Amino acid sequence: MRYEANRQPGRIPYFLCSAAFSTLPEPSTVVVMSQLSQTAIKEFKADFAGSVILPEDPQYDEVRQIWNAMIDRRPSMITRCTSPADVVHSLNFVRQHNLPFSIRGGGHNIAGNAVCDDGVMIDLSLMKKVDIDQELHRGYVEPGCTLADFDTAAQAHGLATPLAVCRIKGRESQKQRPFVGFSAG
Ligand SMILES: Cc1cc2nc3c(=O)[nH]c(=O)nc-3n(C[C@H](O)[C@H](O)[C@H](O)COP(=O)(O)OP(=O)(O)OC[C@H]3O[C@@H](n4cnc5c(N)ncnc54)[C@H](O)[C@@H]3O)c2cc1C
C-alpha cells in the first residue's frame, strides 16, 4: 500500500527510502546535537588524538566540503581521525549519545553520504597510509586513501594496478571490482 501511494512520477518508492535509511536511529530517539553538552564534547576530546572541528572553527567550511559541491550539509561536529583508536572512540561517542553520524573517506560519493546535517561527521580523510607488499603484489590501505595515493605508492615499487579513471576517489571504490580504469582492459 505504501509503495503504491508513493508511486508517482518523480517520487522514490517508499521501500527504497526505507532501505536506504534503515540503519539510522528512529527520529524520536536521536538527540539533537545542539543539546549535547560542552562537557560531553570536552570529555570526548580528552581521549581523541585527532582534531575536533565545530561550526565556529575557521576551518569548518573547508573540512565539510566534498567532491560534489552541490552538497552543503552542516555537521554539528567533525572528528578528524588519525588512528583506528580515534575511529572506535568516535563510534562509541555517537552510540553513547545516540547521535546521527556519517563516515567520510575520500569524499567522492556522488550522493554526498559522507556529510550529515546536525550530527557527527567521522572524517577518515587524514588516514592515508599505504603499505605495499612487493612480493605478494598486495596493498594495505587506510580508509582515507584515494586511488591517487594508492597508485603513487604502488608505482614506487614498479607495480601498476587496474584502478578507476578518477584518481581522487576514496578507498571505498577499491572494494569494487575494477571496472573502468587506465589499465583495466
Ligand atoms: C564522477 C565519478 C566517477 C566515478 N568513477 C568511478 C570509477 O571509474 N570506478 C569506480 O569504481 N567508482 C567510481 N565512482 C564511484 C566512487 O568511487 C564511489 O562513490 C566510492 O564509494 C567513493 O569512495 P569514498 O571513500 O570517496 O566515499 P565517501 O564519499 O567518503 O563516502 C563514504 C562512504 O561511507 C558511507 N557512509 C557514510 N555514512 C554512513 C553511515 N552512517 N552508515 C553507513 N555508511 C555510511 C557512504 O554511503 C559512502 O559510501 C565514481 C564516482 C563519481 C562521482
Write a structural description.
By secondary structure, the chain is of the alpha/beta class. It has 3 domains: 1-25, no CATH class; 31-123, Uridine Diphospho-n-acetylenolpyruvylglucosamine Reductase, domain 2 (2-Layer Sandwich); 130-175, no CATH class. The chain is 26% helix and 12% strand. The strands form 2 sheets. The chain has a 4-stranded mixed beta sheet with strand order 1-2-4-3, covered by helices on one side. The longest helix has 14 residues, at 84-97. The protein is globular and about 50 Å long. The model is unreliable at 1-29 and 174-185 (pLDDT under 50). Bound molecules: flavin-adenine dinucleotide. The site of flavin-adenine dinucleotide (FAD) has 24 residues, from strand 3.
Task: Write the SSE topology.
Blueprint: H1 2-5, H2 14-21, H3 38-46, E1 51-53, H4 60-63, E2 77-80, H5 84-97, E3 101-104, E4 120-123, E5 130-133, E6 138-141, H6 147-156
Parallel strand pairs: 2-4, 3-4
Antiparallel strand pairs: 1-2, 5-6
The chain binds flavin-adenine dinucleotide (FAD).
Describe, in short, the structure shown.
The chain is α/β, with parallel strands linked by helices and 185 residues long. It contains 6 helices and 6 strands, in the order H-H-H-E-H-E-H-E-E-E-E-H.
What is the CATH homologous superfamily assignment of the largest domain?
Uridine Diphospho-n-acetylenolpyruvylglucosamine Reductase, domain 2
Instruction: Work out the helix count.
Output: 6
- Average residue pLDDT: 79
User: Can you give the helix content as a percent range?
Assistant: 25-40%
Ranges where pLDDT stays below 50 over 5 or more residues in a row are 1-29, 174-185
CATH architecture of the largest domain: 2-Layer Sandwich
